[in-house]
Sequence to fold (1243 residues):
Amino acid sequence: MKGGLDRVRLSTARLGGESGSPSTAGVLRQTSSQTVRLGRVQPQAPTHRTIYCNDREANLPVRFKGNSISTTKYNILTFLPKGLFEQFRRVANLYFLMISVLSTTPISPVSPITNVLPLSLVLLVSLVKEAFEDWKRFQNDTSINSTPIDVLQGQRWESIPWKKLQVGDLVRVKQDGFFPADLVFLASTNPDGVCYIETANLDGETNLKIRKALERTWDYLAPEKAAEFKGEIQCEQPNNSLYTFTGNLIMEKQTLPLSPNQLLLRGCSLRNTEYIVGAVIFTGHETKVMMNSMNVPSKRSTLERKLDKLILALFGCLFSMCLIGAIGRSIFLVRRTPTTVMIRESHVEKMGKIQEVAYEILNVLEFNSTRKRQSVVCRYPNGRLVLYCKGADTVIYERLGDGNHDMKRLTREHLEQFGSAGLRTLCLAYRELNTELYEKWNEKFIQAKSSLRDREKKLDEVAELIEKDLVLIGCTAIEDKLQEGVPACIETLSRAGIKIWVLTGDKIETAINIAYACNLINNDMKQFIISSETNAIREAEDRGDTVEIARVIRHSVKQDLNRCLEEAQQYLRTISGTKLALIIDGKCLMYALDPNLRANLLNLSLNCSSVVCCRVSPLQKAQVTSLVKKGARKITLSIGDGANDVSMIQAAHVGVGISGLEGMQAVMASDFAIAQFRFLTDLLLVHGRWSYLRLCKVITYFFYKNLTFTLTQFWFTFQTGFSGQRFYDDWFQSLYNVIFTALPVIIVGLFDKDVSASLSKKYPELYREGIRNMFFKWRVVAVWAFFSVYQSLIFYYFTTAASQAGHNSSGKIFGLWDVSTMAFTCVVVTVNLRLLMACNSVTRWHHLSIWGSILAWFVFIFIYSGIMTPYDRQENLFFVIYVLMSTFYFYLALLLIPVAALLGDFLYQGFQRWFYPYDYEIVQEIHKNDPEDSSRIELLEVANHLTPDEARSYAISQLPREKSKHTGFAFDSPGYESFFASQQGVFAPQKAWDVARRASMRSQQRKPRT
Amino acid sequence: MKAPIYIYYELDNYYQNHRRFVKSRNDKQLLYGLKYKDTSSCKPEESSNGLPIVPCGLIAWSLFNDSYAFVRDRGEMNVNRKNIAWKSDREHKFGKHVYPFNFQNGTLIGGGKLDPSIPLSDQEDLIVWMRTAALPTFRKLYGIIEEDIDADEIITVHLVNNYNTYSFGGKKKIVLTTSNWLGGKNGFLGMAYIAIGTSFVLISVLFALIHVKYPRPRGDPTYLSWNRKSNAS
Fold:
């Protein structure tokens, strides 16, 4: 079983943000003009495929693809070229490659090994890592491909590995098993030919879905019976649309229509059903889930990009240094610093238990966003026919019969109360049907259902015929509770200078309520609401002309935007300090994102302190994110927990997934995963800020130490007749970064912190220093560069000037290598001590690494200059350190030079701290006398915040295999999946359940999900 | 001046640290002599008349060969030219059984000649010369006078001007100096110590003044940037 779970995680791990995207659906459904494309469109050669079930020989000529999958990035042949290519896309590696190539030419003063060795080491480690990761992927693939599955052979079920499965095979999938390929559902052990599946791996929804087999195939359950099954399936070509499927099953010269209701997708698992029998239609990479796989976009931090620029600058610097050298000769020679956060609120779903219901369901009229309702027709044992309908209040009220005004008024009042309390509401209604009416209607319904063209449209029309004259039952409301600590977290984040946008699928009223609850909007704010729920738009929609609707909405959106923008600017001009908020719904957003209006939208929203977008599709979430990312050039962070957040998580600079209740989809697409929204404070304000500081420090320090080192060499060049003679021994040069100055900076990169975790959260404003990029401005780099020039001059001129006339007590004089070893010793000591000045905290690790590095240099030079190797090398360095150390001059210089070199930095730091202190420095001063281990206590508190339930849910979320064992429905909040799918022109997934069933469920005691 | 008095020659504008010059030597040959054949690094002074040169290379070829004699009233002073090179060089870098061979036999004479009967480890002026200098202006130890020189005593120096520095506009100097436990007189280091020390005193005064003139209470929250901004607005 374990293997089975792993494999599905894998196959969906690469499922990208396109889940539910319409890219190919448009092609299939000939409505491509309306669909918005995201990602690639699969070429569709023949329009359908024909599969002969249970007949391998008949399928042979078509050569369907096998069921084995491969998710590896490389194979043995492509590994080296592709892997190296990936490595050399980094500017730094390319730069060192160039240097290495140059060093192998005779013009180079240094031996190639000093450059080639470090580069090869870096490349080797990176490639080994890549190879290891790919090997793990390969092993995962192998374990998936060799998972056993029961396939019908002859008259028996035989166990074969997944990879041997072929299109047309009949398979048996047992309870909790995963579907090995895309199957057409034929028979189930459950009565009524239904089965329950969990699609959490596909779309993040944890509620179980019902699939129902065609009645004609219910009997093919036992192997002897199934062996008799001979059918021909005609269906669409493989595509990546998870929610659509059109096909026909032709058996015994009868054509039976197949819909998504009979489709079992790879990646889903079977629940509450002993076993099912299905026919394989799409295999391996042609399954819908695999067609959805998209390479996870590789993200680069702004810091990394700046680092590239820095390397280029360094390169330019070196190049001009070389140029100066050459001219002389001819005469003689990374943070992320998120500033905008997209969030959507999380749902706590209430779970109930399934109960078997005795009555018979005759028809199900599906939910979709145009209908905004769902109905079911059922027959009670006594023959009474009833239609039950649930849906949005507006839709149900339109279809109610006359009379019963009290009930309507009361329910309306309830609805308003519930709505203002931030609850999600649904209206329930029913209609008694007589047999004659029903039979007449059912005929039309069956016709519509089996039509191959415009099936959904016809179904909608037919549904309209019967969903009228309803009698109101009442309304329901469910609480969509915010996660604990969300408002406090949002307030903290906005104090940190982070702008927060809410992108939600909820309707406008709910979204506003949630925004109030989160402190995003309050009554002191000026609210701009751009909604499509205006009379003008509604009238246009009633007329039904799509072109006209578009024109009207575009016009009104444009007017609204301009009006709001004007008002906003007025508010900003007056110094009243009124904060602004923008609320816009998905339909308007669609037009506002139009290239002509985009600038206005951006302008307006950047002036607002909060922005709430409601009723938005996953695609729009991604579009809004990209708008801010590219249009405003801000750093964006998206956080969400649902499958519909995947695309926005991938679009943002930083994607954060909440490993919550809605499956692992968001987490898998994310860069960081957290268990609860409020942990975002810790993620950003504590760890994000620390790592930003550390990265800045590490990068600037690397820049400094190498520049200092290189410049001493440069000054020497001036005095060698520009001949390019090297100042330092080759090994000094190559081990400088690897041994003598490596460890301390790693320690700083790991442990340095300016203020403790608790203070970081107590002063969220500290985060603004990161947003303003205070620690990695060009100015900061310039200061480091200035002092490295100063220090290198000290190193070079002090050592050479002092050795000019210096000799030891027996009159002997230093040579070139004595002087350079001395200079190098000073460089190593100074550069290590400089780091000590840059650290905010000095622990014993700092001491250990800094003094250890200096010691390492001395140990190295004692050994290196003490031995004569048998290899051919110039014995320049022989005995130099002993010669040096036999003179007092060496010790005097070693004491003086680092002090003189660090004098400048000391002065600068003193002045800076006194006159222009950074915020963190003030905070450090305020809390100077706080007990040392307060941060540790705080961290423990964080851990203690988890209630046993939370801890368990977190632990469960870490273990997908345990997590997905649900036994019941979730109360379906307004159908996200279907809503978003239909927003994009995709047919909504089938959800064959009914109000009555739900009603019966409500009598059961609800079990809150843990 | 008290003995020992060290005699240095000083050359300037002499690029002993030029890349081509620095690498034109072969340490293996210096240690093992003719047994060591691969002397390509010594080009262009690798061989002459078809025979290898020991010691090969430009450094050895350009050996400094001025000679000095110091005469006082009482007669010529004894200049000890032994023990002028580092012990480690003599014992480990120049072979005891390696004798000069085919040296300075080419058409172009670069500098001094070597006595082929003395092993390289005893040719101390060569060893001193071959510890190449760091800068284009450098001193090298010529010898040691092991007699005291009195104040106001006149010393006549007889020098044989063999070494051609006119061609590159270089200058030659002779320096006589003594040393103590610290080493030789080192004006620079002393000055530097005083300068840095003084600047530290000045800086401490400066900081003290700043503290008085522009006081900033430690940990004053009004200095936090967000507090400053709200005050301003």
